[in-house]
């Protein structure tokens, strides 16, 4: 497969969309990112990585981290997490509070902020240091030992974290957090602040395309667990745009307000696209367009 030619064609096609949308404003440290950035990378299951544009420029992974924290918790703790978080699409914005009350403090899925806070809480209980565990895991899976937290982003989010604090306190009132709210929030903000490039994320997500196998052939997850993460990414990974994402792209995907989206083509490759301009639902405008065009050109949607 001529990935280079394919990605260049995708980049040319989406050029008019680059810079469209709004860079995330509610985390002030993210608001200063150049909206005209665009990069895309493909990591084939055979280990080849190809990219175009800003594919080696690190950006804030934000909610993309939630796919990896779920993988770690499933790997270390099996299915127990599903007693505390559901796996249905929420149909609501990623930071919404409304469902939590009438669903008794059990978040709809592990990718909305409430659900990700529960997953981070469990990872904290399992490891004693959720965010460092995440950083080390991502360094190992991406093969990039230089990955780091962006302290300014973590601090900025913490300073403006009233919404996440409300979600966490609310769940704590239902007994759905084991660790102190401040501890859970701190580890969650740190995990979201990790900086990775399209290359790093496509490589790190390779186990999702390899049915749970790492690049070196060792097993991280069972094929069943990998299938499940991909399924939740497909149905919940882009929040209240998950239907539109399935319609346009047709792949398991996980977005972040840093403007990145990771998408998985099981058995074939993992993609990561980045462009910071977001639509109203917090997903990269050019990123969605790029993945839409990629699956249209290749016919590689899961549908
Ligand atoms: O908690 C937050 O609001 C951010 N750290 C992450 C949100 C996010 O990336 C949603 N994704 N599109």
UniProtKB/TrEMBL annotation:
Primary enzyme class: hydrolase
Pfam families assigned: Glutaminase
KW Hydrolase (keyword) present: yes
Catalytic activity: L-glutamine + H2O = L-glutamate + NH4(+)
Keywords annotated in UniProt: Acetylation, Hydrolase
EC number(s) reported in the record: 3.5.1.2
GO biological process: glutamate biosynthetic process; L-glutamine catabolic process
Record-level Gene Ontology MF annotations: glutaminase activity
Cited InterPro entries: Beta-lactam/transpept-like (IPR012338), Glutaminase (IPR015868)
Chain positions recorded as substrate binding sites: 63, 113, 157, 164, 188, 239, 257
Keyword Hydrolase carried by entry: yes
Family: Belongs to the glutaminase family.
Subunit structure: Homotetramer.
Name of this protein: Glutaminase
């Amino acid at each position: 497969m001529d990935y280079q030619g394919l990605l260049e064609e995708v980049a040319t096609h989406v050029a008019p969309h680059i810079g469209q949308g709004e860079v995330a404003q509610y985390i002030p440290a993210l608001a200063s990112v150049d909206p005209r950035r665009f990069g895309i990378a493909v990591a084939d299951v055979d280990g080849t990585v190809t990219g175009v544009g800003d594919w080696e420029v690190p950006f804030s992974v934000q909610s993309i981290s939630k796919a990896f924290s779920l993988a770690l918790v499933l790997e270390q703790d099996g299915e127990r997490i599903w007693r505390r978080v559901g796996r249905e699409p929420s149909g609501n914005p990623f930071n919404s509070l409304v469902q939590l009350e009438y669903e008794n403090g059990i978040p709809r899925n592990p990718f909305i902020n409430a659900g990700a806070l529960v997953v981070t809480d469990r990872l904290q209980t399992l490891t004693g240091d959720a965010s460092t565990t995440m950083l080390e895991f991502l360094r190992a899976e991406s093969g990039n030992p230089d990955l780091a937290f962006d302290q300014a982003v973590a601090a900025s989010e913490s300073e403006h974290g009233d919404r996440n604090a409300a979600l966490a306190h609310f769940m704590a009132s239902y007994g759905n957090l084991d660790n102190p709210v401040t501890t859970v929030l701190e580890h969650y903000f740190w995990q979201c602040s990790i900086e990775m490039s399209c290359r790093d994320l496509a490589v790190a997500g390779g186990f999702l395309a390899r049915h749970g196998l790492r690049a070196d052939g060792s097993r991280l997850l069972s094929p069943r667990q990998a299938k499940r993460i991909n399924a939740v990414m497909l149905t919940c990974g882009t929040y209240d745009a998950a239907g539109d994402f399935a319609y346009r792209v047709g792949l398991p995907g996980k977005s972040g307000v840093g403007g990145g989206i990771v998408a998985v083509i099981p058995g074939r490759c993992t993609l990561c696209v980045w462009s910071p301009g977001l639509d109203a639902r917090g997903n990269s405008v050019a990123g969605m367009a790029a993945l839409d065009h990629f699956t249209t050109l290749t016919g590689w949607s899961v549908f």
